[in-house]
Amino acid sequence: GAGVSQSPSNKVTEKGKDVELRCDPISGHTALYWYRQSLGQGLEFLIYFQGNSAPDKSGLPSDRFSAERTGGSVSTLTIQRTQQEDSAVYLCASSFLSGVSTDTQYFGPGTRLTVL
Amino acid sequence: LAKTTQPISMDSYEGQEVNITCSHNNIATNDYITWYQQFPSQGPRFIIQGYKTKVTNEVASLFIPADRKSSTLSLPRVSLSDTAVYYCLVGDRASGTYKYIFGTGTRLKVLA
Between vectors from CA A32 to CA B51 and to CA A73, what angle results, nearest 5°? Predict the structure, then answer.
C-alpha cells in the first residue's frame, strides 16, 4: 500500500506566523512519530502517538509546538509564532505495533520548513 | 537521556566491507537495536534490527555483544549506491516514558 505521506513538502513562512504540518501514516499503523532534522544534523525525537494518545510531550522543543492525532490516523504538528531556529526538516514515521518497543518505523519524505 | 554515539564519517572503496559501530551505554533491557539508512532529501529507511548476537539479512549484518552496550552494522561489498548516512536507533526509558534516540549518524562515502 501507500507509504507515509507528509504535506506540504516545503513551507516557507515569516517569523511569527503559525504553521501546520500534516502526516498521513500507513493504513493500520497504530503508532506515529514526529522527528526534527536540522540542516546537516541528526534526528531529534519530538513526540510519538499510540493511537490518539501521546504518552509524553516533553520532547517538544517549546510550548509553541503542539501535536495531535485524530481517528488514529492523520496527525498534525503545529508550530505557533515560528522562529528562525524552527527551520528544519520535520519527519513523520509510523509503525504497526505499539510505540513502546523499537518497532520498524516507516518514514515519510519530510516537510522542509524555512522561517524567514 | 540515553546517549548513542557513532563515528561522524567513513570512506570506503567499492567492493569492501564496511563496519559502523554505535555505542549505546544505557540501552533498556528489552529494547532492540535498529539501523536506518538515509539518502539526501529522503526519510530514513530501515536496514536491520536485532536484540543480541548476530542478525543477517539480504543487505547487512548486525553484531551485538553480550553486554549490548554497542552494536556494529556490517555492509558487505559496498557499492557507490551505499553512499548515505547511517543511524542506529535505541529506546530510552530513563524519564519514565519511552523516547526514541537516534545516534549521531555516520556519513559513509563509497569511492570508485
Answer: 140
- Using CA atoms, how far apart are residues B43 and B36, in angstroms rounded to an integer? 10
**pLDDT tens, residue order, chain A (116 aa):** 589 999 999 999 999 999 999 999 999 899 999 999 998 888 999 999 988 988 888 899 999 999 999 988 999 999 999 999 999 999 999 998 765 556 789 999 999 999 99
> What's the grid cell of residue B32?
532492540
Contacts of A99 in chain B (CB under 8 A): 98
Interface list for chain A against chain B, based on CB atoms closer than 8 Å:
4, 33, 35, 42-45, 48, 55-56, 58-59, 91, 93, 99-102, 104-110
Bridge partners, A106 (sequence order)? A94
Residues of B in contact with A88 (CB under 8 A): none
Contact A104 B49 (CB under 8 A): yes
* Spatial separation of the C-alpha atoms in residues A116 and A76, rounded to whole Å: 22
End-to-end Cα distance, chain A? 37
Residue A116 CB partners (closer than 8 Å, separation 6+): A12, A13, A14, A15, A84
**Smallest Cα–Cα separation from A55: which of B26, B96, B3?**
B96
